[in-house]
Each structure stands twice: as C-alpha cells, then as structure tokens.
Specification:
Elements: H1 3-12, E1 29-33, H2 38-45, E2 57-60, H3 70-85, E3 90-92, H4 100-106, E4 126-128
Parallel strand pairs: 1-2, 2-3
Antiparallel strand pairs: 1-4
Amino acid sequence: MHALEKILASHAGVNQVVSGEIIKAKIDLAEVNDLYLQTIYSFYEMGGKKVWDKDKVCFVFDHYAPAPTIKTAQIYKEMRQFVEQNNLTHHFDINTGVSSGYARGWLGISRYDFSCYRFPYYYPWCFWMGEII
C-alpha cells in the first residue's frame, strides 16, 4: 500500500484500503488551503451544518497572498465567513506568513512536511494523520 493508504487504513481500523474506497476514519486534522473553495460548497451539499470539531480543521491561505484578483478576494471572503461561522481555532490568513506544511508542524500534527498534492491522488480535504505506518 501507498503511505497515505497505510495511514488511512490505520485510522479506519482496517488492514487495507484502496484508492476510490469510501472509509470512515478518525481524523487528526482536516486542512483546507486557499485553492479549494469547493470544499466548503461540498460540505454543505453533503448536508454539513457545523464542523464536528473546531480544533481539527485548519484553513491556510498561502497560494495567493495578497489576493491578486477580485475573484480570489471573493474566495477569501467566503472562506473567512466559513471560519467565523464555525468558530474555527486554526486559520492561517494571508498576513500569517506560513505554508501549509509549517502550519501542520506548528500545530504539532505532523512530524513530516508532506502535502496532499505530492501524492498520486487528489483529496480536496487533506486528511493528515501525522504518522506513517
């Protein structure tokens, strides 16, 4: 299994997972960066009302700082509203000066500086477990 599959299997309490499989796993941290406004839309489309744990969701604005276009500024506005509505503890805004890898380390979530885009799968919510089995 790929390293990410091992992590997900461990947190789902199963021996193995495969790409495309839907699992229920214990999540240490769900990270959303400024490229994925669709994550918020999907949250509501799937019936989400409120984030399950305000300490286990992290928003990181590190790709467009400051917002280069009006569209990007609107994305930031919607993400900030979501952060405020859910009273999220961890929001690294454009003036924070951190990358997503740094944020995970700063939160004590990860010993590794991996980002989900380095894996061969696309995960709009970066489920980060902080250990490799």
